[in-house]
Amino acid sequence: MAVLTQSSLWDTVLELTKVAQEKGSDPLIWAIQLSSYLSSAGVSLPSTELANVLVSHICWDNNVPLAWKFLERALMLKIVPPMLVLALLSTRVIPNRSSRPAAFRLFMELLKRHAFTTKSYITVPNYQKAMKSIDTALHLSQTFGLQASEPGILMVEVVFSIVWQLLDASLDDEGLLELLPEKKHRWETKPQDVEVDGHGSYAEKRMEHQDRLQNINTVMAIELIGRFLQNRATSRILYLAQRNMPAHWEEFILRIQLLVENSSALSNSTIMTPDVLLQLTSDTHKFLSSECKTSSLHAIMASGSLVPSAGLCQGANRSALWIPLDLVLEDAVDGFQVSATSAIEIITGNSKSYFILKIQLDEKRWYSVQAVSNGRKLMVLYDRFDKGPPSN
Known about the structure:
Layout: H1 2-23, H2 27-40, H3 48-58, H4 65-76, H5 82-93, H6 101-114, H7 118-121, H8 127-138, H9 140-144, H10 151-173, H11 201-230, H12 232-244, H13 246-262, H14 264-268, H15 274-282, H16 290-302, H17 316-322, H18 326-332, H19 343-349, H20 351-363, H21 378-387
Helix pairs in contact: 2-4, 3-5, 4-21, 5-6, 5-8, 6-11, 6-21, 8-10, 10-11, 10-12, 10-13, 12-13, 12-16, 13-15
InterPro entries: MED33A/B
């Protein structure tokens, strides 16, 4: 009975969304009414189920500007988990970016708005549930070979995976992905179903429009990769990926080098150069000043990754991967390095180091996350794409 009730609830949400879309309702009013309806139904917000419903609604029967505006308003009002929405979109939009370049452009605009404020996500309700949903959607545990359920670990994996997807997509757009030695790649870069284009002059104009937008998108995707490596919050997260997943990071760097050496899109960028992109990856550790190091630690602690659990107490190798206390202690204690076996053992076995860490935690402000909002407003982009040839 409970299953039927839940099914009926989300069917109603979908119907309300379709009716609002047909009427051309104001997205903000739709989002407020939907939030009120879900709250009265006892749904905890932000809702992972709503995120799945809205993304499935857009991809691809309702890939229209108003549906994207609805999704943006839902993100702004925090009734859906932003990182889950971005993860769900990444697996559907990126493989279809050639046939639906407008959707890919809007997805990247959402990344600009919502992927660089990770601090705000770890304090909202349902954070752990959202991260587990992301793990399921992106198959993170399978991809990276880690059976980890801690949200802090999953946050590192999801940011790394989104950047990697953008990188593979950019390489594929320029025919460079096939130059890699391995032929089976981690992320889908092409749709599994082949689409048949229409014929006639209208179809030709549509293809010309899509080709132009796709070329612009490739440049924008590369610039976004650079922003992830340069942004204070995400560069710290990627540093943890570099530090704790060296084999995967080596594959990632191989792709960066291939892009730097061969990409014409990178050469066409006005804000990113090959030398700068290569420098950002080779000197990732330099982004971690003393403040950055302790911020990274505190982010993992705040997200629950230092909570004692079976996943954190399975030996030195496993624990050392995900408890980077030495990031703090190497500055706090001259020449001292920690070989961790679990969060509890570190704290209780190194009381002097913990005391120094406690002083730092009390005296410093750990987060200084800069929200990135460069680029044009999404609403302008929606209207602009609405005037061009349809992408469906």
